[in-house]
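User: Before I run my own analysis I want an independent prediction to cross-check against. Here's the chain; please return only the C-alpha cells and, at the end, one sentence I can use as a sanity check.
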Amino acid sequence: MIRFIFSDLRRLWAGSLVVVLLVALATALGVSVVLQERALRLGSARAADKFDLVIGAGGSETQLVLSSVFLQPSPLPLMPGEVLGKLAADPRVDWAAPIGFGDSFSGYPIVGTTTMLAQNLSGGLAEGKIFAREGEAVIGSAVKLPLGGEIKPMHGSLEEGGETHTELVYHIAGRLRPTGTTWDRAILVPIQAVWHIHGMDAKEHAENGAEDLHDHEHEEASADHGHGHHGKADPDAALDESWTAEAPGLPAILVKPKTIADAYKLRQDYRSGNTVAVFPGEVLTNLYATLGDAKQILVAVASGAQALVAASLVLVTVIHIGQRRRQIGALRAFGAPRGAIFGIVWLEFFFLVAIGIALGFALGYAAALILSGMLSQTSGVAMPVGFAREDAWLAAVLLAFATILAALPAVLAYRQSPAQALRA
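Assistant: C-alpha cells:
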C-alpha cells in the first residue's frame, strides 16, 4: 500500500505540491505570529530585568520605562536634584545612578550617567576602561566605533535637524560587554559633562527642577532666542559623583535596592505627587495586557486564513476524487476492499497535510527569526525566537484537524461502487 501511495503522489506531483504549499503558508502565518509575539515579550522582559527600580518625576509610568530602560526618545519632566542626593544617602540603596538623555551621535543615543552604572550594566568591560574624565565615553557592544574615536554630541537627532555641540568632544575610553538590551547601542558619558554642556548648573535647576530637558535643548537650538543655554565643559576635568541636594534636575534615576523588601519600601516612599517609582517588569506586564487584544486580532486573522485554506483543500480534494473515479473503480474491480481504498486515499491526503504543517512550522520559525533580527538591529533588544511546550499543542491540534480533513475524500472514495466508478 505504501509503495502504491508514493507512486500515486509522484504521478500527481503538481497537485500534491499545491496542497503542501497551501497548508505550509497558512500554518507559517499562525506560527510566525505566535513566535514573534513571544520573542518580543521575552526580549523586552529580559531587558527590563537589568533594572530593579526606576524613579522619575510625576507622569506616565509607561513613558518613564520606555525612555529610561529602552532609551526611546521622548521628553520627560525633570525632578529636583535633591532626590538623587537623598537616594545616595539612603541605607536601603546599594547604588543610584542618574541618567540624562537627549543627545545622539551617528544614530546612537548618548546617555549621561555615572561610573557605577557603567560598571554594573554589563558586568564589566570587553575592552578599554571606564570613563574617568568629562571628555571620556564608554560605548555599548553594538556601537560600531573604535576605541579612541571622537564623539561630537548632537542634541536631538540628524533627522530632526539637531545641532552639534561645540563645547565638548568625547573620546571613547572603553566598550561594554553585550547585555542584549537597547543599551548595547548607547554611548555612556559622565552625567556632569551633560549638565555642563547644556548649561545646567546647580543653582538654575535647584530653582526650577521641573523644567523639561528636551524643551531646554530645543530652546538652545532655536534661532528665535537671542540667548542660548550652551555651557562650558572641560574634557580633562575629574569626575565628582558625590551627590547633594544641589544637583541639577534629572529625568530619571536607576536604583539598585539592597533587598527585595527595600525595593518595595522605596517604591512606596517615592510614589508621591512629585515623583513616581516603578518596577519596569510590572509596567511591561500591564503593557502586555493592553497589547493582548492586538495579539488576539492577529491570531484571529491567521486562523481565518487557515480556515480558508481548509475550505480550499476540501474543494480541491472533492474535485481530485472525482477525477480519480476510474482508478478507484479499477482497484475495486480487481478486488481491493473498501477499507483499503479508504486507507489509501486517507493516507495520501494526511501525508500531504502533515508535510505542509511541518514545512509551515519551519517557515514560520524562519520568518520570526528574520523579523526578530530586523527589530533587534534597530532597537538593540535581543529577541529570542524559540518553540515552547504550548506549541506542541498547536501542532497536535493541526494534525488532529488534518486527520478529520483527510477523512472527507477517503469517505467519498469508500462510498463509490466499482460499477459507478467505471461508468464515469
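Sanity check: The first strand starts at residue 53 and ends at 57.
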